[in-house]
TrEMBL record:
Belongs to the alkB family. Pfam families: 2OG-FeII_Oxy_2 (PF13532). Its main location: nucleus. It comes from Myripristis murdjan (pinecone soldierfish). This is AlkB homolog 6. The gene is ALKBH6. Signal peptide: none annotated. Its cofactor is Fe(2+). GO terms for molecular function: dioxygenase activity; metal ion binding.
């Protein structure tokens, strides 16, 4: 049985050793031309592809993940290219990504700490476009042994700096155990809690103003329904 977390040799140099297992951070995974093209495609998508949430809006590609199986939809070529490229690094243990979430965060927007849940292969890969952000990680609320109140602050563990054009891969404890979120703020002052500063080419004390960030969250949904089966069940 192949290890679920087996990745291509090429990736090993990008492990963030200062974080719990396992984080890969790959700066400049795509070029500026690819970034501009991807942003153009995102903003050329039909207006109906957008879902407005409080604090961000998103596009869902590939189908809606569901406990009974995702009714798979074709992923457009401009995204499929990256599904294949990331899958060929071994991120999904030989499977090809079949789901992409496009999130758009305007300056000052974010996402509450959450886990990605059981509908996905336990790997999340994210390409950042347009602006950096800080992705913050938190321990889950524990039911036992907690001395004092478990505030978000007391559960906070570390952050990762995600620069535009970078690829982030999270697996193992970082995916399965910790929660991740983005604070809704308009700038970030970097501290030594941002554990990938050197590989992201930044220095502690630096303040980075946020702009509009678009992220492509590329995943594999193992349980899929074939449309044919449904249409056949008359
Ligand atoms: O935008 C990001 O990098 C995080 C997205 C995320 O956590 C999610 O869509 O579940």
């Amino acid at each position: 049985v192949a290890d679920v977390c087996e990745v291509h040799h090429e990736l090993r140099q990008f492990v963030v050793k200062e974080a719990p297992p396992t984080v890969f951070y790959i700066p400049d995974f795509i070029s500026e031309e690819e970034e501009a093209y991807l942003l153009q495609q995102v903003y050329q998508s039909p207006r109906t592809k957008w879902t407005q949430l409080s604090g961000r809006r998103l596009q869902n590609w590939g189908g809606l993940p569901h406990p009974k199986g995702m009714l798979a939809e074709k992923i457009p070529d401009w995204l499929e290219k990256y599904c294949e490229r990331i899958s060929s690094l071994g991120a999904f243990s030989g499977k090809t990504a079949n789901h992409v979430l496009v999130n758009e965060y305007k300056q000052g927007e974010g996402i509450m700490p959450h886990e990605d849940g059981p509908l996905y292969h336990p790997t999340v890969t994210t390409i950042s476009l347009g602006s950096h952000t800080l992705l913050d990680f938190y321990r889950p609320i524990s039911s036992q042994g907690a001395a004092g109140p478990q505030t978000e602050e007391s559960r906070y563990l570390l952050s990762l700096l995600l620069k535009p054009r970078s690829l982030l891969i999270l697996q193992d404890e970082m995916y399965q155990h910790l929660l991740h979120g983005i604070q809704p703020c308009s700038q970030d002052t970097l501290t030594d809690r941002v554990v990938n500063l050197s590989s992201a080419g930044a220095l502690p004390g630096e303040t980075l103003p946020r702009g509009t960030r678009v992220s492509l969250t590329i995943r594999h949904v193992p349980k899929v329904m074939k449309a044919k089966l449904i249409l056949g069940r008359k």
